[in-house]
Amino acid sequence: MKSTNIQKNLFTSLFTTIVFALCVVNLFISCASSKEIVEDKQAKGTLTIDDDSDNSLDFQNNESTLKGINHASSRADSFFYFSDNQIMENAVIGTPEHLKKTISLLYKSDQNYSEQEKVLISICIKIMQEVWPESQISWKIPDELPENLYLDTLNSSFSGIYEPVKTTEDFFSLLLPSLTLFTLTPVDQYAENSEAALKEALRLQPDSILATYMLGILYLKTDRSDKAIPLLQKAASAVPSSDNISKALITAFGKNIKSTTSYDEAKAILATNPENKEYLILLAQIAYDLEDYQNAEVYIAKVLQQEPSNKEYLMLRAKILFKEEKYLQVSTILDVFSRSNYITRDYLLLRAQLQIEWNKNSTAAIATLEKALEQYKNDIEVLTLAAKLASTTSQKINGQTAMEIAQNLLKDDSSNINALVVIVDENIKNKDWQSAYLNSNKTLKLSPSDVNVYLNHVEICIELNKISEARDIIDMVNEKYFSNNNNTVSKKNLESFQKWNLRVLRAESKNSQVQKLIDIYMKDASSDLKSILYYEKSFIENSAAMQLSDLRLSLTSNPRNTDSLYALYEYYFEKSDYQKARYYLRQVIALKPSDLDLLDKNTQLDTLLSQ
Question: Alpha carbon 523 to chain centroid distance?
Answer without folding.
Answer: 39
